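Tutorial, part two.
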Amino acid sequence: MVDASRATLELWQFRLSMYPEKVRWALDFKGLPHIRHSLLQGPHIALLLPRFRQKSVPVLRHGEQVVKGSANILDYLDQQFPEPALYPADSSQRTRALELQTWFDEAGVQVRRAFFRDALDDATYMADRFSTGQPELVREIYRRAFPATRLIMKMDMLVTQRGADEGIRRTQEALDIVIKNRGPQGYLVGDRFSVADLTAATILHPVAFPLEFPVDFPQPRPPGLERWLARWADHPGTDWVRDMYRRHRGTSAASEDRNT
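Running the prediction step on this input gives:
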């Protein structure tokens, strides 16, 4: 049994990734000091595979306990650190919130695929986004290697035209679900912020680029990104995403952010 009051929370993550962002948000929402190990996509495999026997993030370590995957991590955090709660107290609302979490988590794979189909057109711009926070020498090396990294990413995540078309359809569906399910206070389940809102806003953050997201997408943006954003600009779901970030993203509770 983990002594929650003593053990250090450590998160292995990409700065530019929706599923680690989901865990960062949960940690910050609960005000939990933690150490972030920020990896570069591509080279990260050599660090994660020997340590955790997998190549995907997020991974949370809490003392001797290792938890993998954003949904599992949020469940663990709400058990170990129940306040403020991300799970609704009412059992039927909790069931619904978790159903929405699952739906949006599954949709995220396709949303990401569609986003990267457009965003990865400009290798230099996106290499700078992926390497945010890294030392300048590391960023320069990463820029030069990124065309090869981009190719591997596309193959690994099935970033094809067919995959992007399906991802666009799923993104539209996700935005429609947000608008259909939001209540008078804007929340998807009940009258307070929950795991459902956190997950939906995180998965959909690429359609809105909320200011509170830790990676900036400065102007001028490349044509692929502008094309992507233009698709969703008039959908009210993008305003909902920005509103959730503005109201609940808060400040970082990380005690340290290490480049790994």
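The first helix runs from residue 18 to 29. In part three we will examine how such features are distributed along the chain.
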